[in-house]
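Hi support team,

I submitted a single chain yesterday and got back a structure, but I'm not sure I'm reading the C-alpha cell output correctly. Could someone confirm the output below corresponds to the sequence I sent? I've pasted both exactly as they appear in my results page.

Thanks,
R.
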Amino acid sequence: MELAEGYRLEGISPKAYEHPADRAATAALSAIPHLDTVVRKLIELGYERALRQSLLGASVRLGDAQLPEMWNAHLRAYKTLDIESVPDLYLTTAPYPNAMTVGSGKPLVVLQSPLVGLLDEAGHASVLAHEAGHVLSDHVLYRTALLILLRIGGAARLPVGLMPMRAALLEWHRASELSCDRAAALVTRDPIAMCRTLMVLAGGAAAERLDLDAFMLQATEYREKGSLLERLTRLSIDLNLTHGMPVRRVHELMAWVKGGDYDRIVGGQYQRRDEPIDARYEAGEAAAHYGERFAGFFKDAGESAQQAMDQLSDWLKKRSDGDGEEEE
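Hi R., thanks for writing in. Yes, this is the structure output for that exact sequence:
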C-alpha cells in the first residue's frame, strides 16, 4: 500500500480525532486521587525496567536489515502524524496476534509474530499507525502501568482493594483504542483497511477468506440489536478485556467516518498542537459518566480511591523488598 507523496498531517493534535469516550475516560482517570503518584511509583520501583528488559531479551529489533518493509511502514506512520521521535520496533513470538506500545519515558513498539503472518501490507500499516496514535495521544504511561499490573498481579493475586484501579485502567484502555483506530484510518487514508484488520484479528483467518461486508453488518447488529439482558452481558464481558470488541470498534470507526470528520481532517482542517484547548471540550456529560463509573468501581469493592492507592503503595513496597520475581 503506497501513501501519497508528501501526505503529512502537520502539527496535528490528537484532540482532532480523539473519541469522546477516550477524552472522558482520560479526564475521569486523571481525577482519581493519587493515581498518577502510584503509577509513577510502579516505574520508580523498576517494574517498567524489568518489563522492558524481558521484551528486549526475547525479541528481534526491526530495521533496515530486519523486515525492512515493516520498519518503513512504522516510519511512515510517525512521519504522517508529524511525530519527530520514532520508537524502536520489535518482533516477539507469542501465541496470538497483538501489538503494544510501552515505556513511560522512551516508548517502544512490540509486534507479536502471528500478527505479521496473518495480516497483509495494508493490515501491517494499520496496526503500526494505530500504535503511533497511542504515542501521539500520550497514552503510554497509563498503558505501561496497566501492563505491569496485569503481569505482576493477575486477578488471582491482586489484592481486592486494588481491583478498582485495574478496572478503571482497563476501562480507560478500551476507550483509548477507539481514538487510535481513527489515527490508523487517517495515516493510511483507508478506514476500510482498519476494519478489515479488526476482522482478521477477530477471526484469525486471512482477509481473502472472510467477507468484510458481512462483518460490518455484524457490527451494526451487535450494537443495535439484542435484548436488555444481551446488552448487559456484553458489558460484563467488556469489563475483563484490554481491548474493546472488534465489532464494536468497527461500528464506532465507521460512524465517525460517515459523520464527516475523517474527510475534513484528511482535507487539512483539524486542530493543531499549538492551538489552545477549549476547556468545555474536555468537560461534559461523558466525563461525568466515566467519573461516576470509576467511582463506582471503588464503591463496589468497599474501598475509597485513597484507601486503594495506599494499599497499592504498601503492596508494591512489599514486592520490591522481596525477591522481585515477575509473573507472566
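A quick pointer for reading it: The CA atoms of residues 318 and 324 lie 9 Å apart. Let us know if anything else looks off.

Best,
Support desk
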